[in-house]
Design a protein that fits this description.
With 647 residues, this protein is of the alpha+beta class. The longest helix is centred in the last third of the chain and has 26 residues. The protein starts with a strand and ends with a helix.
Length: 647
């Protein structure tokens, strides 16, 4: 019997994915439920972004039919999350999901209604599985937000499908699971896209070159140069020159010629080479000095990088939809629609030579070069997370790859990307690098979903314009200003233009970019003076809170109704801060959360400093009556001044 593929809708008019007479069982060899904040928020966002006019594929469920039950071989984390989500939404769900030999998990699922109602008196809390309980809490928080529309969400959810794929009978499931974990869960969309684009090429040598570039770019760890491997660094130098840091050429035929020569060279390592004391296996790591080894982590994954590159390609080539009323690319960067995004460009795009669909070979050649150059620019000019030695504490980084040594002894090292005019001091460059890091990290922590990281596209387009002219001259010294303009545009559009008559009272709906751009400005103005905020870094502070609370703890002080949502009374903190923070008085927060405040948002630090009693007035009362307004005027003043400046 061959595997059977079934299309399953999560919900429809009167059924859902768990309305079945067959039970789904999570086998013991699978890990316990482990999805946390990032994955669950992403699931909600994926569903909210669904086009109600089309079906939306959200993944595969690999199962094996065993004694009338479906044993889940792969996809259990998503399946369990959907089970929790439907319960949180109040959808009637049959108890058709169980865990083999995990009584806590099963007890929690059987009693999920009581867990949702927080009727803990009816539960044996020692038997509750913490991972599932945490998942329920996160999902309830997301769907409990003021702007969440349950009816619309369920309508979108009805368009979401998964494919249930049955493995053939007599499959060794343990072995199958081991292989899937080793090789990856399933064929990804970008693998399918690669094969499709390569099929447009008729020359076998070009196909091999396409695959080599694609595969190197697909590894988002480290720097792309390190993914071109060959004897004596010949492959790497074909693309990036002897310094390993040159902008790749746009000439595909030049690469073909060099690669043919490289292929004729002897490859591999002989035993006599391996046994030498100085023999080493090359990896992505390098050094920033003689003792500090570093590794780097990208801020986006490859499918999203492909979508950014497609937008860069469309912008550079001036590609339009053949139907002038339609857009050639989507606003959102949706990895679930990767193939659709490319198909729209290929089959409906028009540029200088006509319809792209009639020139597919040309498109494939031009896109792979665009991919290579865009990845080079991305690595050099877009922030990464940098980890020193064996540390797990990363920091924001903007470095370029360089090389030391000669010929086969060359090794990579990293130093700050240059943003200077010729002849300027290194210290000037370090200063500009820091400024670029700060404004980009402000954007990064403001837009946490990869679907809305449009700032990356905009910066890559600017870097790529007119054969990358900006990186060849003094224009690169204003790269931080280009990034700052993106932040300013967002603050103007989503804050100043939506706050009527100068009343800045958006409360918890205030966009995160407003807080983070303000922190950037406060840091920037301080760096030449007292350097009070030299220790400040942008972190994922993703919870907007009231300094003077909306609901004071147990009526210990009076409620503030008319101004509590004002910008002057708002701060941004990390979501994992103790939940008691929200109901405490300002002076209690100041004394209780000293460490968090000292390392937190600059605006929060200032608010804490301003929280002082005045005469016989308690600090909370004086804050509510006077200081919040003065603080707001000063902060809004900084934002307005920045938004009115020209570059």
């Amino acid at each position: 019997m061959s595997g059977e593929v079934t299309e399953l809708h999560i919900v429809d008019e009167d059924h859902n994915i768990f309305d079945t007479d067959v039970e789904y069982v999570i086998p013991l060899y699978q890990r316990a439920y482990a999805w946390e904040d990032r994955q669950l928020v992403q699931l909600i966002e994926d569903i909210q972004d669904v086009d109600e006019e089309a079906s939306y594929y959200i993944g595969s469920l690999i199962v094996s039919k065993q004694s009338g039950r479906y044993e889940v071989v792969d996809g259990q984390q998503r399946l369990t999350s959907l089970f929790l989500l439907l319960n949180c939404l109040g959808v009637k769900v049959k108890p058709t999901l169980t865990f083999a030999c995990r009584e806590r998990s099963n007890y929690t699922l059987r009693n999920i209604k009581e867990l949702l109602l927080e009727e803990q008196s009816k539960l044996d809390m020692d038997r509750i599985e913490a991972g599932i309980q945490r998942g329920v809490k996160i999902l309830c928080h997301e769907i409990g937000k003021a702007d969440f529309d349950r009816r619309t969400f369920l309508k979108k959810l009805s368009k979401v499908i998964v494919y249930r794929i049955e493995v053939p009978e007599n499959t060794d499931l343990n072995r199958y699971f081991e292989i899937m974990n080793t090789r990856g869960e399933q064929l990804e969309q970008h693998d399918i896209l690669k094969a499709e684009l390569m099929s447009y090429l008729s020359d076998e040598a070009e196909k091999e070159l396409f695959a080599k570039i694609w595969d190197a770019c697909s590894d988002m760890t480290g720097y792309v140069q390190m993914h071109f491997v060959g004897k004596n660094n010949s492959v790497r130098e074909t693309f990036f020159g002897g310094t390993w840091n040159e902008l790749p050429s746009q000439n595909l035929q030049e690469y073909k010629k060099h690669m043919k020569e490289v292929e004729n060279e002897e490859s591999g390592c002989c035993i006599k080479d391996i046994i030498k004391e100085d023999f080493y296996i090359e990896d992505d790591e390098g050094y920033v000095d003689r003792e500090t080894r570093v590794r780097f982590e990208s801020v986006i994954e490859y499918p999203y990088f492909l979508l950014h590159t497609l937008k860069v390609f469309v912008a550079l080539k001036g590609i339009k939809h053949e139907n002038k009323d339609l857009k050639i690319t989507d606003e959102l960067l949706d990895d679930k629609k990767l193939i659709d995004a490319f198909n729209r460009v290929v089959f409906h795009g028009v540029y200088e030579v006509g319809r792209i669909g009639e020139h597919k070979e040309k498109f494939a050649r031009e896109f792979i070069i665009c991919l290579l150059r865009t990845r080079y620019l991305f690595d050099k000019y877009i922030i990464k997370r940098e980890y020193a030695n064996d540390s797990t504490e990363g920091e924001w980084s903007l470095k370029s790859l360089h090389v030391s040594g000669q010929q086969s002894k060359k090794k990579p090292y990293y130093k700050n990307t240059e943003f200077v005019r010729s002849g300027e001091w290194t210290s000037t460059n370090d200063r500009r690098t820091k400024t670029n890091i700060m404004i980009q990290s402000a954007l990064r922590v403001s837009y946490t979903s990869p679907k809305v990281m449009h700032w990356i596209t905009k910066l890559l387009v600017w870097l790529s314009e007119e054969d990358c002219k900006h990186i060849r001259n003094d224009d690169i010294t204003r790269f931080d200003s280009i990034a700052e303009q993106i932040a300013i545009a967002a603050v103007k559009e989503n804050f100043f233009r939506v706050c009527p008559r100068g009343v800045y009272a958006m409360g918890v709906n205030t966009p995160h970019i407003v807080f983070n751009y303000l922190d950037y400005l406060l840091w920037y103005h301080d760096r030449d003076g007292k350097k009070k905020y030299s220790d400040f870094t942008f972190e994922f502070r993703n919870s907007v809170e009231h300094w003077y609370p909306q609901n004071p703890s147990e009526g210990t002080f009076e409620q503030w109704k008319d101004g509590v949502d004002q910008f002057g009374n708002l701060c941004i903190i990390q979501r994992n801060v103790n939940s008691k923070f929200s109901n405490m008085s300002p002076e209690a927060k100041k004394s209780t959360f000293k460490d968090m405040i000292s390392k937190g948002s600059i605006k929060l630090r200032i608010m804490s400093e301003l929280t002082e009693k005045k005469g016989d007035k308690a600090a909370s009362l004086y804050w509510k009556e006077t200081m919040y307004r003065k603080h707001e005027e000063e902060m809004i003043g900084h934002l307005k001044e920045a938004c009115e400046k020209t570059f």
